[in-house]
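Researcher: Next sequence.
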Amino acid sequence: MAGSMISVQGKDGEFPAYLSMPPKGGPGVVVIQEIFGINTWVRSVCDMMARNGFVALAPDLFWRMGKGIELHPFFEEDFQAALGYYGKYSVDQGVEDIQAAVTKLRGVKGCTGKVGNMGFCLGGALSYLSGARTDTDASSGYYGVGIDGALGEVGNVKKPMLLHIAGSDPFVPKEAADKIQAGVKGNSNITVHLYPGLDHGFCRDTDPSHYNAEGTKLAHGRTIELFKKALA
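Model: Next structure:
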């Protein structure tokens, strides 16, 4: 299933996004990138969600630093470049861009108007913040980095949310994972799933050093189940 690039109008400019459409349309899902841009793997996640009946849109969140940034974690030069972009990135602007993408997707022909989001790494944290700050209908954040420092926003999450935490994630160590699990306990909208022994990026099948097929199947299955209920 091949997608196409479209444009999204944000608060301070227009930016590109990759759209993957199932034949019969369906609910929408904004797919939120890692620190590597809208690369082959992010597009494959959109296509996978489209095969499961969702209209999937991945906005280019690094557009202010350069449109069309596409990096791959298994190349050291790309990895270092990605860290540089991450260091300069504004999370607040990112959430605003995700709101613009959600709004755009609600109006795409074939989309039912219900829109959730799913994000990975940087995108996992942005998925959590989008659940707190945007009008998304559901969120699923995978191994989000920095959520433990934003737990003051837990009370703003009013729609269903999943947080997938890798048990052996060097970027979300046990102390941070424990803090997240304790910090969200008071909000029944948020469910945390822990994946013991799995590494950061365990869903990235283009990177064999991190990928875990069983964990990916379990996490994506939970996400799709959530979206089928919350976006019906």
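Model: The CA atoms of residues 19 and 57 lie 4 Å apart. The domain at 4-230 is CATH 3.40.50.1820 (Rossmann fold).
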